[in-house]
Amino acid sequence: MTTDMQTRDPLFIAEDWVGQGRAVAVATVVETWGSAPRPVGSHLVIDEDGNFEGSVSGGCVEGAVITEALDVLQSGRAKMLQFGVADETAWRVGLSCGGKIRVFVERLS
After folding, report:
1. Residue 35, SS3?
2. What InterPro entries does this protein's entry cite (predicted)?
């Protein structure tokens, strides 16, 4: 029996998706600095169709992370992503409030 907390946990959702035979990637916040809205250890899970659950940034970089996760699912190679105000992608992905975030993306299935 799962609890309500488990049904909202992205890792439990990923486990369910894998059980359904779906290819799944998990993105994990591994470092933050400044005003990053999600703490280290936060997760975003993505399936091969682009469905996702969870959050690594409160909406600032999710689109870019999902795009990279789909590539990880295709290639099978994990990636370390970094976004921040000193990074040329800062304005494109919406971290204009400041801070830095590093996200590790790997294939689960």
Report:
1. coil
2. MoCofactor_Util/Proc (IPR052698), XdhC_CoxI (IPR003777)
- DSSP state for residue 42 in the 8-state scheme: -
Tallying the residues shown for the chain, one arrives at 109
What separation in angstroms does the CA of 94 have from each of 24, 49, 50, 57, 64? 25, 24, 20, 10, 10
Give the start-to-end residue ranges of the domains of the chain.
Answer: 4-107
DSSP 57-86: STTSSHHHHHHHHHHHHHH---EEEEEETT
Q: Please give the pLDDT value at position 8.
A: 79
Q: And the tokens for 108?
A: 């689960």
pLDDT of residue 52: 96
User: Can you tell me the distance from the alpha carbon of 50 to that of 46, in angstroms, rounded to the nearest whole number?
Assistant: 6
